[in-house]
Amino acid sequence: MSVELLQRARAGDRDAFAGLVAPYRGELAVHCYRMLGSFQDAQDAVQETLLSAWLGLAGFEGRSSVRTWLHRIATNRCLNLLRSSARRPATAPPLPAPPPEPTHLGEVPWLQPYPDALLEGLPDEAPGPEVRYESREAISLAFVTAVQLLPPNQRAVLILRDVFGYRASETADLLGLTEDAVTSALRRARATMDAARSPGPPPPAAGGPEERALLDRFVAAFTDLDVDALVALMTDDAWVRMPPLPFEYRGREAVRQFFTAIRSHLRRIDHLVPVRANGQPAWGEYLRDPVTGGLHLAGIIVIDVAGDLICEITRFETTIAHHFGLPRTLD
């Protein structure tokens, strides 16, 4: 922490305050995203966190680092949002055909992807030694989805303890809880997360030949709407999700039934533009306009990979496509 920056910021220098918090903005955004599951809600929460920090700067006594102080404000801001149930309303456009019976109804309709480009430059070190989740797993869609099903306090405790590595005493101080309450919340949160985890072989190296070969096969099957080829690329317990639509399908047979039911009602996918989201392969999905002949963006597809197979396909709406550098139309 720069003492000079802090002194200037306390004197009302906005540029000094911007310099003081700049190293932590990206990390705060990811933290709020893990807490809230929505990229847009996380961006709003970061802005509110920084405003609160600016207004409360006189009360910062320097007993903790600026980073920890910001974590405290951001976490409690997210908890307030969660407890008020002031979630961004999810709009769910209808499917082109009646879907088959889902494996179960999705419980996280507000879920959005997180652009990998915004993950660059984040600090590698954690505040404490007790990290349990590797950085890749802690930003994955599977992790973020599972975290959304935890009660707010359990969610905050799990992220502070197992993702950031804060000690129990530090977490209790950040949240205004007792250490016993933190320990109890963490025990219940870990049990829920362990039950939700589906350990499998690690994915191939990003950008490596094994990943490229698998992704090429997926693109060919997906753009051709070849159900057999698509299902053949998936693990036995693979998931298909489509937030904010509430339908989720698990397992090859359920996935086959879903794609078969909607295949004849779908237009051909003319082009996929590769991007990355949540540390995972992703694409912008483009369809050709039958009138103008141009390509227009129809969705964002994110997959997760286990070994040499796909274990999850998630299709999102285009709400935050510009954050991925995806244009609305292509010639």
TrEMBL record:
GO BP annotations of the record are: DNA-templated transcription initiation
InterPro entries in UniProt? NTF2-like_dom_sf (IPR032710), RNA_pol_sigma-70-like (IPR039425), RNA_pol_sigma-70_dom (IPR014284), RNA_pol_sigma-G_actinobac (IPR014305), RNA_pol_sigma70_r2 (IPR007627), RNA_pol_sigma70_r4_t2 (IPR013249), RNA_pol_sigma_r2 (IPR013325), RNA_pol_sigma_r3/r4-like (IPR013324)
Which is one Pfam family of this protein?
A: Sigma70_r4_2
> Taking every annotated instance into account, which residue ranges of this chain make up the domain RNA polymerase sigma-70 region?
20-87
Sorted alphabetically, the keyword list is: Sigma factor, Transcription, Transcription regulation
Q: What are the residue boundaries of the RNA polymerase sigma factor 70 region 4 type domain, all occurrences included?
A: 142-193
Domain SnoaL-like positions? 216-312
Q: Which stretch is the leader sequence? A: none
Origin: domain of life: Bacteria
A GO MF term = DNA binding
Q: How does it assemble?
A: Interacts transiently with the RNA polymerase catalytic core formed by RpoA, RpoB, RpoC and RpoZ (2 alpha, 1 beta, 1 beta' and 1 omega subunit) to form the RNA polymerase holoenzyme that can initiate transcription.
Q: Which PANTHER family does this one have? A: ECF RNA POLYMERASE SIGMA FACTOR SIGG, RNA POLYMERASE ECF-TYPE SIGMA FACTO
Q: Which family does it belong to?
A: Belongs to the sigma-70 factor family. ECF subfamily.
What this protein is called in its record is Sigma-70 family RNA polymerase sigma factor
